[in-house]
Amino acid sequence: MGTTDWSHIRSQFPVLKTQVNGYALSYLDNGASSQMPASVITRLSDYHQHEHANIHRGVHHLSQTATTTYEQTRSLVKDFLNAESLEQVIFTSGTTDSINLVAQSWGSSNLSAGDEIILSEMEHHANIVPWQMIAQKTGAIIKVIPLLDNGELDLEVYATLLNERTKMVALVHVSNTLGTVNPVSEIIEMAKNVGAKVLIDGAQATPHMMVDVQELGADFYTFSAHKMCGPTGFGVLYGNKSLLESMPPYRGGGDMIDKVSFSGTTYNDLPYKFEAGTPPIAAGIAFGEAIRYLNAIGMDKIAQRESDLLAYAMDGFSSLEHIRFIGTSSNKTSVISFLIDNIHPTDAGTILDKFGIAVRTGHHCTQPIMERYGIPGTIRASLSFYNNETDIDSLINGIIETQSFFN
User: Fold this and answer.
1) Pick the catalytic residue: 365, 375, 396, 400?
2) Is position 365 annotated as part of the catalytic site?
3) Rg (CA), the chain
């Protein structure tokens, strides 16, 4: 295996050449959305210039071309996840949409009063609110796995929550705020032992590591393109085929039907049963290009590169004083959530931006985490493989400048 030229890879991301306030951009907000390489941007443009047509319905050349290319993305996703079949790959508008689909479609058919849904204290709001909505509708009860001080889940408490009334365990694979990588295989196995179904929110896992859905054994797995060097507005729901076949459609409209009449309608086969209306075709095609790009680098190499950058960053942080880290699990991705002295995270983020340093501040759509630690929010630096040591040096220097400004 040859050495990867990370400097060359970085050069393939046009936005990283941006100047902010006279400083080179240090983009450290990858947990919110990653950047797109030139090849993905070009693929978006090429579709609009040369291939734009609706899919699945036309017999003319452009429609056939767009359909073929769009469906190639489904095949790429299947292989990326090691899914068993194409029918298990449902295209959605993103992780949030995928979770809502399962909560409403599976939940409305399988939950009733007294049934229990297990979530965790580290969930993104997108994996809390949909379950609250369906629980309110069905009378199901939500139970919560608490967080330990280091940002790991209390699996001993989880074991006590599981029982014959547990119908669904919905859990994040990797915390967007803490970076914690949950032991999802163990969590899934424990859920299966009581007959529960499992949904895994993989939005923060698929950009950073290899995911094998057959090995994990989850019933549902969700993620978004825009965190994987792809466009916004496009995502994936992987599902157990028999479960998907038994679930009613989430939305009605074109493409998800077999036959329509005023006396009744029959629905299309998987995966199209859950894909009503014209999808974001350009985004879907460009996401295929993003997967090809990641595959060409290698997810194993990406994981190692980000691990090296995290180690470099933590070494830099060791030279700083008055830093409080939120989320200190030994098994985590390249996410650093922290507080500086008594400086409000938003104030700190505003100062860092003056130096071209893009970090995320606030509650990161994980307000229960903030409540757990008794804080208003955090500063989050989230690294990707195209970051470099200079980005991290800029962050460390920016923190020093921030401390100086407020002292």
Assistant:
1) 365
2) yes
3) 22
